[in-house]
Amino acid sequence: MSPANRGLIGLGVGLAAAGAATAAGIAAGRVSKERHARLSVLAPAGAYAHTPDRELVVVADDGVPLHVEIDEPEPSAAAGPGEPADKPTVVFSHGFCLSLESWVLQRKALVRNGYRVVTWDQRGHGRSGRGSEASCDIDQLGRDLSRVIEETTPSGQLVLIGHSMGGMTMMALAGEHPELVRDRVVATAFVATSAGGAQLVSLGFGQYFGKLVGRFGPGVLDRLSARPGLVRTALRAGRDIEEFLVERWSFASPVPPAAVRLTGDMIFGTPLDVMADFLPTFDRHDKRHALVHFHGVEVLVLNGVHDVLTPPDHSEEIVRLVPGAEHVVIEEAGHIIMLEHPEVLNEQFEALIDRGMRAAAEGVKVARKPRVRRTVTDLAKRRKVARARRGEGRA
């Protein structure tokens, strides 16, 4: 494509963004007052704050430093009657344009219930190093996860949980290290992710426009990253606009403003050129062949009904290719389910781990289980939101 045509596309994107920003600003103004005045009671002060027991740097095989945090189980959460004394370590991998902070509510819950938890920032995200453009690749992320496990949990049972790009990372790990999954992993959760073979970079705009985003998006983001002043000017249009856009692509039900702020900080804290470097790997992503290595492992697939980035049909291939996998679809949920419906995810993860530990201890043939698909409605959250909207002082 000629530079002139690229310029026209860039101009069109800019004009569209300006129009969207104007419309978003109007809509944001309408919702902001209600959210800040009432929905703040959905999250108590400090709900998203967390101090890990240990922080460390794990060096990837190409020299990139990866930020890792470890939470040790609370001493009071000793194993109860009939529970194994040594519970598995839970390793969380976050999604594209997020960070390990996205798992804050899950790691707190698991630590309270006696689990050791490992979280890490994928390269180019959060506090991890960046690496080269060529290293922004799902296979490299799988190797990074392998190094994290090697350094933090060289032995013992594991539970792997990944959201979006994090789930793809786990598939890449299994493809290169099938023995690790076979010998040590007792349970796995794939949250809002895809095994590939589908148009991934659509951003909720549909297949045709999604292809344009996948083709031209990296170039647009690269040019924007070279003009940080322009980006800052756009963001100065107001935080309400930013938060409105975050809610549009992240959530499908009311959430406290602190959750929107946390999500926005993670997304807009990801460098634009890192976003550009990663976009091509999603269109190349196809790890369906790696799913065979999860046969015999307790597998849970989780989706939000209204996820515009990776809707439930993107995950159905995982369920089809892994015998015994369970598929749970959450009503009124978008892409960032772990912050939108944390209690539901915490319950699902606890049940998954219990099933996995029991299957491992009793030699249960997981692959012989019938496939299960369930739709879950977060009734407890509905009640909280209703009370908040009535102006009651408690969530």
TrEMBL record:
GO molecular function: monoacylglycerol lipase activity
One Gene Ontology biological process: acylglycerol catabolic process
Source superkingdom: Bacteria
Residue ranges of every copy of the AB hydrolase-1 domain listed in the record: 88-342
Pfam families on file: Abhydrolase_1 (PF00561)
GO cellular component terms attached to this protein's record: membrane
InterPro entries (UniProt xref): AB_hydrolase_1 (IPR000073), AB_hydrolase_fold (IPR029058), AB_hydrolase_sf (IPR050266)
Name this protein carries in UniProt: Pimeloyl-ACP methyl ester carboxylesterase
Originating organism: Pedococcus dokdonensis
